[in-house]
Structures
1.
Amino acid sequence: MTVIPAMNKRIQVVILTILLLSFQQIYSQSTLVDTLSSSAEISVMTCEPGPQMYQSWGHSSIMVWDPVNRIEKIYNYGTFNFRTPNFYLKFARGKLLYMLSTESLEEFLRVYHYYNQTVQQQVLNLNQSQKQAIYEFLEDNMRPDKRFYRYDFLFDNCATRIQQGLENTLVDAASWTYPTPDPAVSFRDAIEGSITQKPWMDFGLDLILGLPTDAKMENQEYTFHPKYLYETLKHSTIMKEGKEVPLVKYESIAYQAYPTEDKKAFHLWPELFSVILALAYLIISWSLRNSPILPKIDGVLFTIIGLAGMVLLFMWVGTEHRVTKMNLNLLWLLPTHLIPAGYLLASRLPEWVRTYLLYSSILLGLLVLSWFFIPQDLPSAGLPLTILIGLRTIHQWQLHAPAPTES
């Protein structure tokens, strides 16, 4: 009867000892992580483009590694919460908040191993105070009131946030060397350079991205693209112990993609598709030139054109996306074509609508002549479609001409 209490006391002592040691370890870790050790390193991780649409331009993140304090954190500015209320509407309107999140290196690399994307690591050549400043900046950005931000495809994304953070913490110590291609490159050029093997995606972006995307990039604007951020860091310098040294101490491969068989799949390029579609439509409309169904077919075409234009107009005036403003594709994807579409489907066309058709066909003709000279880089696949829309518009104007009155 006296053995059980004795054993209980021993168990209690063991449990209390374990708890005290655990609290001591937790306390020691919490005090250590406030200050990085001299063995700590700050690295920028650059991920190559992947197969998914959102991976087409690669990705950038920043890592803090401190073996003494057992820190191995990836800071990622490119995350968002799918559970956000009205997620898709906020995403479409440019109101979705992105956030800074952290994960281990193993968790980070798991995704890129799955999609077979090479991850390059650039270890920065920093002194202790600079490492500490960057670490404190990142931890401060993790605060609930600071970690969320309004994402902007060109001016505020996972790459620009890293560059801005480095500029703010290194201040005058770093000398930045931004890419200077000749001739100068526009935002659209940089975007399209990463999706040459995705022609339909290229066509879609050329439709939805407006005139601001055609501006030539200058200085830090290049760093919106992870590839250019990598090049900027590679060629920049920093003052260290009174000497100007490379900003990147050394580079390594955090994950090397394995070689895969290059499967050359057949692509029906948008340019070829639009030519075939335009020719087929013109042939059909010619064969039905005397049929009462032709105006209704053109009514369906004008409806599609008008609805597409309404989408572009919404992306201009109804969203926060700066890259979709002032879209000159609205000169051929005319939202106003919904007006004659309704009358054609109803088999009647007032004279004022005929006047609209005349002036819009003149606009379309002028656009065709100036297609490659206007300031926005319009999709080449849109040219055959614009010719088609112009021909069908002028034909409906002629078809509904008032009958001549007898004298």
2.
Amino acid sequence: MRYETRCAKIKLKPNSVERVREWAKTLNKTRRDEALATLRDETVMVEAFFLDSSDRPDTLSPQAEKLINDLRLALQSAKSEAEAQALRREYLSKLPARDVVARRLFAGRDVEGASLVTLSDPDGKPRLQLKVDSLGKASITFWDPSGRVVRTIKP
């Protein structure tokens, strides 16, 4: 049997998160039977919602907006796809990291097989890393804002 899967991301109105939380509590506590009956009637197998929290702005900064507009103008004069790609790389490399999605947390493995948990600043620069290498040796590394290792702790 095949099931249709849908995913939607909905931007909430400003200052509405508490109302959404109250709505979810109401559905789970006092209207649970009604909600489940509605899902059954609509042949819904699973329904879930998540509140996504981000420290990214909803709009681009004036600096980023200007760069994007300048890129659009520059692309109009590109003579080839290779030139257009070079322009994109040049302009997008100038975008402030806070205006794009910067990875703040990584948990996983690196190419050498080490298990890592890395925490980064709002610009996506690593600042703290917990590491257990492929031989089982643990370490904690701290970086300053410029990317220089300031301290590594090993047992």
3.
Amino acid sequence: MVHNLLLELTNRLDSLAANASAFMGSLQRMIDLQDVDEDAFLAYKDRLIHYLERFVSELVVPELAAWAETLDGENPAQAAMRSAASASHVSLAAAHARAEAKLRACWDDLRDLRAERERLRSGEHAVPPAPHTRAEGVRDGRPGAPLWQVTDFADGLSAVERAGLEAALEASGLLDAWVTPDGRLLDPGTYDVVVTATRPVAANLGAVLRPAIDADDPQAGALRPEAVAAVLAGIGLGEAGAGTWVDVGGRWQVGPLRGEWAKPDAEYIGHGAREEARRRRLALLEQRISEAEAAVRAAEAELAAVEQRQRVLADELERQPGEQALRDAHGAAVAAAHELERAAGRVQRQEEKVKEAEQAARKARRDLDEAASDLSLPTARSAPSPPTARRCSP
């Protein structure tokens, strides 16, 4: 019976390599959800299966067979399973944490995109990115407006020229600079960029931009068209000797700084440009939201796969074979061996008694023969044979 149990346990351990192979095969279906090189994945799978086969056949089974003979110490099969389970728990916990973090990041991206879409759908326009040197909310309630908000393109500019001009203003920092009603700088500690009116130059921005103030805006409405026109007159159009200038090709200079930039479309200067930019952004957001939703679904599937692997591990640990049957069989074998030993002892003692009885019987015969010889009586060895009957003649 013990031998049969050993064979059964050995067969179970031999099947671990096959189970590992099946498990790795199931992971193949998850490659499309992971950023994994397939050749590297398959090479790792082969190495892992080879290791499991060697571990089971060369290490665990011989140790288990030796342990099953005596049951001394810890069950090597359970020790191996506990070690493997511990490593799997750590690995799966790390995978679960990564999958949760990835899902949270995907949801954050999706929520941000949806919130921007709702703002644009309500009619809100995009604004130029604020520099990191400007504190959030520092412009709230302040009279005035950024240059892009109180100007519009003059008639006759092509779409390419509009894009180039806005690119030069944006790259130089002039586009989002604040125009104040009285043309003065801000109070110390405000930490913002202000554009003020300077001496007019011959070729200036007034030729391509014109004041366009929204009178219904409480902040921008504080500006007068003349103040905006004065600011435009002090900025040169093209490189013509002015210290500050821009051109429709995207080039610019502000004092000793010079540069160039390009963008596909104007998106901030003029209500029409802002509205067109809003529609383009909405169309782009629909595509990005669709992609973000797909990313969320993929992250949810990845997390679900990790949780399924955790449940499988817990189920495998719950269903691992116990050793009580082997211990019961081992106890029965030991008890049977002890009983056999006791029976052998009884047989040996009985044999000794029989031997003693035979010796006593032989001695009694010798004593009887000696006594018969002394009395001239026949002994058992010399006793006459019984007479044979003779046949009478007729």
4.
Amino acid sequence: MRCALAAIVLAGAAFAPSALAQAPRAQMSFDQCGVHARAMHERGWPGGTAALMRASTAAELSPERVEARLVALHAELAITRAQERRWADFAQALRSDAGEMQAMMRAQGGSAAPSASLPERLRQRHVLMQRRLHALGRIEHAVGRLYAVLSASQRARAERALEPLAC
């Protein structure tokens, strides 16, 4: 089950800028998403949607690491006072997501017995995927609201920094 969890983890707090060339979103391949995830992981930003940023341990989603990432992104995007409320909503969505994922990883840690039947393993995976889908919806909403108040240059920086969220 740990493999299944690793395959669906979205570390919403993964937002390192990527120096990699960006393909149009509609043409972004799973391989390219993996390249983004590796580059972000190497920069200390683990995570991903199924291909997007695999946090291999709950410690990678610690509140301290999430806060450090948020501080860096806030600075990179040059968030203004007028944008702070939308930023706060976005940051809280990422904090919540990281906390939920950390709790799931801790709860999961070895709980899936190898003797679990195929139907039971599929049920467990289904539940995890439903949780991730719900979290992704919250992040999508928060990103949309934040984008609505960003300038064109801030959006360009956000596109580079947050691209892996769209993989």
